[in-house]
Amino acid sequence: MVHSYGYRAGTRNLFSKRAKTQGMPNLTRYLTTFKAGDYVNVVGDSAIQKSLPHKVYHGKTGVVWNVTPRAVGVIVNKRHRQRVIPKRINVRIEHVRKAKCQDDLKKRIAENVALRKEGKGGKKRVPAGQPRPGAIIKKQAGGCIELRPEFFDPLKAYKV
User: Fold this and answer.
1) Maximum Cα interatomic distance, the chain, rounded to a whole number of Å
2) Among candidates 28, 17, 20, 19, which has minimal Cα distance to 96?
3) Are 74 and 40 within 8 A, CB to CB?
4) Which member of 10, 11, 35, 48 has the lowest number of beta carbons within 10 Å of its beta carbon?
5) Three-class DSSP category at 114
6) Which of 59 and 158 is assigned the larger pLDDT?
7) Which residues fall within 8 angstroms of residue 104, CB to CB, at 6 or more apart?
8) Which of 10-19, 39-48, 73-82, 114-123 shows the lowest mean pLDDT across its residues?
9) In what order do the strands lie in the sheet with 83-92?
C-alpha cells in the first residue's frame, strides 16, 4: 500500500480520544475567557473538525495575540531544521486550553506582594547546594587518627 501524505496523515492515535471522553466538548470549554498574553496549550479536539490545527502544533504551548468571538490567534514556535520559527495560527477555542505553566510563578509573586505589604520584605530564595557557613572544629579527646595506605608486602599478601 502506498504511503499517504495528506493533511491528517499519521494522526490515528494523535487525535484519538480516551475512553469515556468521546463526544462533543462541555460548555466550560466555550465559556473560558482568553485574553491577549495568556499562555495556552493547543490540543486538537477531533470531535470538531472546523479549524482543527495541523498535527505539528498538537500539544504545543503558545501565547494568545488575537481574540475573536469563536477563535483565538496563538503564536507557537515551530522547529524547522536548525531554526525555530514563531508561527501565528488561528484556532477555534475548542482546540485550546489554558496552560498551567505560569501558575507557580503567579503564586510566588502573590506571596511576595503579601509579604511586602506586611513589611517583612520579599522572601529571599536560597539556591540549593550553597556552601555552609564556616566554623571552628575542636580536637577530640582521643586525638587525631592518621589514615594512610599500608605498604604492600608480597610475602604477607600471599602467605609464603
Assistant:
1) 94
2) 28
3) yes
4) 35
5) helix
6) 59
7) none
8) 114-123
9) 83-92, 71-80, 60-67, 39-42, 96-98
CB 110 within 8 A of CB 123: no
Please give the average per-residue pLDDT across 78-102, as a whole number.
Answer: 96
The x, y and z cell numbers of residue 121, run together, are 520584605
Cα atoms found within 13 Å of the Cα of residue 144, Cβ hemisphere only: 6
30 membership: H or E segment, kind and range:
helix 27-31
What is the enclosing helix (H) or strand (E) of 61? Answer: strand 60-67
**How far is Cα 30 from Cα 70, in angstroms, rounded to an integer?**
9
The predicted structure's pLDDT at residue 139: 80
Query: Mean pLDDT of all residues in the chain?
Result: 89
Residue 130 confidence (pLDDT): 78
* Tens-digit pLDDT profile for residues 15-32: 999 999 999 999 999 999
